[in-house]
Records
---
Amino acid sequence: MMKDSQEIIKDLVSQYSKIIKNLDIEKKKDRLKSLEAESTDPKLWDDHEKAREIMQELGDLKNEIEEIESLGEEISLVSEISKEEKGDLKEEIGKLKKRIETLRLNSLLSGEYDRKDAIVSIHAGQGGTEAMDWASILYRMYLRYCESRNWKTKLIEVSEGDEAGIKKVTFVVVGSYAYGYLKGEAGTHRLVRQSPFNADKLRHTSFALVGVLPKLDDVDLPNVEIGDEDLDWQFFRASSKGGQNVQKVSTAVRLTHKPTGIVVTAQTERYQEQNRKIALELLRGKLWVFEEEKQKNKVAGIKGDYRPASWGNQIRSYVLHPYKMVKDLRTKVETSNAESVLDGNLDEFIEAELGL
């Protein structure tokens, strides 16, 4: 048994070494020094939102570096103990395996903005109340998933359904690597079930579109200029719940980027200026996607507009009748425990997508 433990630990040491190379810890330490310098700037808190983001990244990065280094030390310690054949290391090895797997997943998130917060939107497809109800179920699923990862969420915009559910919802997910983990959720999600809105309980298929963007600042998009002359601002009274001030004053914002025709809205904050700031954040994310896809199309020789997370780009099917199954059409991962998935247990699907 001790020999088996030594072989397992040797494998863990090998995995750890490979992951460390991919993570480029020296680059992370350089970024940490830069953030620590920024955090001492007396003018930092002149912009509270910017300061919050800097302090959040600084804390996340410091924790990540500490975890990487402490994990390496513990692997070395357990390796030495195993060579001396002292005690049963089964429990310690189990804990190390879990920590290495988390580190491995983080190493797969090497995209430029993977560690950023995410902006998630859900649009109900055609099908009236059925589709709107499905959109609300997805919204609840993602909120539960975020809770399981101790991420915070903040509602930006919601358009309630006429009878039930939601037509559209947009929210921000605040957490380390939120965009990296959630970006693969973008696409069309299909639900098959017995209709709860039909007396005959007929089988019904509903669709909802999920979009995921990174939450970006001006400094994140040095090659994308957003001039005042390119922006068309419109203000209106919010239709969502938000108290008397939101209802009686034109606090909601609709922003159109004239060169691209991209339109974004924000309406959940009590003050117009806050919604203006959120609208610009949404626009930056959409412009980044727009430029990224334009460049991909140029390289591939593709003409025409590209629409990310477009209808028809079905990524996952959720079947509740006549049998129960959730299946990802890209990774082929599937489970019969559909209720668990809709309760936010998405790790198996998200991790499989990251490993592609």
---
Amino acid sequence: MITAICNQKGGVGKTTLTAGLAQRLGSPATPVLVVDMDPQANATRILGVDLEDDMFTMLDVMSAPRPSLPEAVRQAIAKPGPGWAGIDVLPSERGLSNREMDNSPARESQLRAALAPLADTYRHILIDCQPSLGLLTVNALTAADQALIVTEARDFSIVGVNQMLTTIQLIRESYNPNLTLAGIVVNKWQGNRIDPERQMQTARDEFGTHLLEVSVPQSEAIARAATQRVPVSDTKDNTRIMEAYQMIAARLERTIA
């Protein structure tokens, strides 16, 4: 199952959620593949991948001629840092942004062609999308079986969700008719404040059952773990975070069953 984790607005926590879900879904026996499609390469850094000059990245994958794609993907798959067992990474780099100018035939389906040979290798492939609508995001949604939209309980973030829903519909009509919506998850939730609760109710009214019941709480533990390039520790203080990750991961598992 290929899941694109997306929002056209930045700063909503897509990458930390991607890493948290990969931690919950992956194991040494059934590894998860994280595809970093953001030229900022935050997922690559958080997962502890240190890029060397001679390493292949998503830039090489997205630049490769179709006959060379299987070899480019094989060379680009990297192992994460300590603590991320059960996860493989297709890392990113800033040069990936150059692929936005690609005008070659079938450019929208390059990622789909690249990931097709991996369908039997990974039960879950998670694509961390860039926070904008461009060719890289179009590729991610064209390759995906489903999209998981990440947002915050704020006015402008909810507008971003509507824009993302419109984009998903356009991708269905133009490139990927089988793309489904896995759900909309609220990240950085602060339930003890009036304005976020009002916005949450607005989101419930607007998105109905597409809005997941579970929200990921705002926590310094998530930011600290990202900075240290390690998973959020499974401790009593972080119970709500880990429960949220587990419930969202279970939602993704149910889409396979």
